[in-house]
Structures are given as structure tokens and as C-alpha cells.
């Protein structure tokens, strides 16, 4: 029992330090984060306390309001922290892959299935919406990569819908912070077994980057592919 308490005490400072670090990082991009969180907490608590006085149970509703105030503040903090993180990652090579890694259950993602020496890259995600090809890089160059990859998909899994998205802030592009939402809004047309079968067929096909180790998350700027490395297909 003592060991469990000691482990819990050691973990708590780590969690608090991580929260504090996240708050500092978020505040750099979102100067109003403190005021927003305070306002959410106070308003939530105030509403429940007022209801408590109206129905004659201010203590019970006050306690409930306090708990919900912390919960509401935590939710708002999480969303704004995520938005701030996306803002800092925007434009970095490999940023879209980091978002795809955290898209949620039901999706299988494969980073860098196509790439050229200019660091334009296409990632692939497979889910009940079908196959989604996510490109990042120069809009004109990635269109060539997307076209080649879609052609390949149509040869191998012709019965599965293939969507393509270009990450960016220009016209007909999807911003990094909206990438996950955009993908989750795609209509679901495949069943679970169909998704599994699609993944199996794609794995049998092999991927461009299967033999090339890549760092997770955004790639360092200026990173160059080794000579004799993969070329865009």
C-alpha cells in the first residue's frame, strides 16, 4: 500500500508540471487563455449556484457547479491548447502525419506513402470513409503526387472510395487544425470487415517508405532524402 502511495505522489508532480508546461506553451500563442478559463469556470459555477438558491439547495448545486466548472475549464483548455499546438506546427513538413496519428479509433494511418526530394509528401489513412490521401507541401507539386497515388489506389482497391486533401491555408486546402474534423465528417461507406480487407490489400502492396526510417511528428526543416532514396511515383 505504501509503495502505491509513493508512486502516486511521484506521479502527481509530473502531471502538474506537464499541465503547467502545456499552459505556458499555449499562452505564447493564446494570450487570453487565462481570462477565458477563468470566465468559463466562474460562469459555470455561478449558474449552478444561482439555480441552487432558486430551488433551495445552494450547497448541493454549489458543489456540483464547482466540479462542473473544473470540467468545463479543462475541456476548453484542452481544445485551445490543441489549437495553439496546430498553429505552431502549421507549415512544418510532417505536421499532418502527427495529426493523423491522433485521429482516433477506426483509422489506420501510414505516413509518407509518396514523397519527392522537395519534401512534398502524401500520407494515407484508411477508415470507414474509405482511403484518404493527405498531402502537404507545394500545392502544384503535390497534385502530381496525389494523382499518381490515386491511380495506384484505383488499380489495387478499385471498389473503395479515395479522397484527397491538401493541407494548407490556401484556396481548396484544409488547415492543419481542421484536418481531423474534415476527415471525421466524410461519409462512412465501408463496414469493419471491408476496412480490414482494404488494409490487408494495401499492406500486401507495400509502401514507398517501408524501408526508410522516418522520425515521428514534424520533420526537421532542411532534412534531405539520401541519394538513391525513393522518388515520387
UniProtKB/TrEMBL annotation:
<keyword id="KW-1133">Transmembrane helix</keyword>
<feature type="region of interest" description="Disordered">
    <location>
        <begin position="210"/>
        <end position="233"/>
    </location>
</feature>
<feature type="transmembrane region" description="Helical">
    <location>
        <begin position="59"/>
        <end position="78"/>
    </location>
</feature>
<feature type="transmembrane region" description="Helical">
    <location>
        <begin position="33"/>
        <end position="53"/>
    </location>
</feature>
<keyword id="KW-0812">Transmembrane</keyword>
<protein>
    <submittedName>
        <fullName>DUF4191 domain-containing protein</fullName>
    </submittedName>
</protein>
<dbReference type="Pfam" id="PF13829">
    <property type="entry name" value="DUF4191"/>
</dbReference>
<dbReference type="InterPro" id="IPR025445">
    <property type="entry name" value="DUF4191"/>
</dbReference>
<keyword id="KW-0472">Membrane</keyword>
<feature type="compositionally biased region" description="Low complexity">
    <location>
        <begin position="219"/>
        <end position="233"/>
    </location>
</feature>
Amino acid at each position: 500500500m505504501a509503495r502505491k502511495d509513493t508512486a502516486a505522489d511521484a506521479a502527481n508532480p509530473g502531471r502538474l508540471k506537464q499541465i503547467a508546461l502545456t499552459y505556458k506553451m499555449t499562452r505564447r500563442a493564446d494570450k487570453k487563455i487565462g481570462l477565458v478559463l477563468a470566465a468559463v469556470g466562474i460562469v459555470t459555477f455561478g449558474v449552478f449556484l444561482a439555480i441552487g438558491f432558486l430551488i433551495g439547495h445552494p450547497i448541493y448545486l454549489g458543489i456540483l457547479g464547482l466540479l462542473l466548472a473544473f470540467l468545463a475549464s479543462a475541456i476548453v483548455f484542452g481544445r485551445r491548447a490543441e489549437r495553439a499546438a496546430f498553429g505552431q506546427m502549421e507549415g512544418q513538413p510532417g505536421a499532418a502525419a502527427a495529426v493523423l496519428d491522433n485521429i482516433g479509433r477506426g483509422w489506420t494511418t501510414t505516413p509518407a506513402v509518396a514523397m519527392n526530394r522537395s519534401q512534398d509528401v502524401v500520407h494515407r489513412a484508411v477508415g470507414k470513409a474509405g482511403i484518404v490521401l493527405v498531402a502537404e507541401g507545394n500545392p502544384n507539386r503535390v497534385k502530381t503526387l496525389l494523382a499518381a497515388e490515386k491511380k495506384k489506389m484505383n488499380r489495387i482497391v478499385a471498389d473503395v472510395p479515395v479522397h484527397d486533401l491538401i493541407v494548407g491555408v490556401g484556396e481548396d486546402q484544409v488547415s492543419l487544425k481542421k484536418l481531423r474534423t474534415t476527415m471525421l465528417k466524410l461519409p462512412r461507406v465501408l463496414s469493419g470487415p471491408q476496412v480490414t480487407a482494404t488494409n490487408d490489400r494495401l499492406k500486401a502492396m507495400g509502401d514507398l517508405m517501408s524501408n526508410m526510417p522516418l522520425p515521428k511528428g514534424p520533420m526537421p526543416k532542411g532534412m534531405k532524402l539520401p541519394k538513391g532514396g525513393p522518388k515520387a511515383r
